[in-house]
Design goal:
Helix content: 10-25%
Number of strands: 7
Distance between the termini: 27 Å
Order of helices and strands: EEEEHEEEH
Number of helices: 2
Strand order of the largest sheet: 1-2-3-4
Oligomer: single chain
Radius of gyration: 14 Å
Shape: globular
Length: 112
């Protein structure tokens, strides 16, 4: 599953990092609207199993996004940088978690 949201002049996607040895680490892509190319990737994982409840269960060491909600969107469907992102995710096929952050934090993380 890809969780995606738009910010003026760019798209963000939370994606499974296939370059790792596991299938449960997620990063963020940052795309430009003006040209169909990748602008940046956040270098750290934004979602990975860390807590005991994410590592122990029916499928150990597994997290996966299940839904993404943003607090505020303008008339054109763009997310405001001050919006809070709520990312609901499954953990170890046993629990549901909620991760939150501000859109601006993700933007800033793309360009350290």
């Amino acid at each position: 599953m890809i969780s995606k949201f738009k910010v003026l002049r760019s798209d963000f996607e939370i994606f499974n990092d296939l370059n790792t040895s596991t299938f449960c680490k997620y990063r963020v892509f940052y795309f430009s609207h003006s040209t169909p190319k990748l602008v940046a990737i956040i270098i750290y994982n934004v979602l990975e199993p860390r807590g005991m409840w994410e590592m122990v269960g029916q499928v150990p060491h597994l997290v996966f996004p299940t839904g993404l909600i943003v607090d505020s969107v303008d008339d054109r469907g763009f997310t405001n940088p001050s919006s809070i992102i709520k990312l609901y995710y499954g953990a170890a096929d046993t629990h549901i978690g909620l991760a939150t952050c501000m859109v601006q934090e993700l933007i800033d993380s793309c360009f350290p």
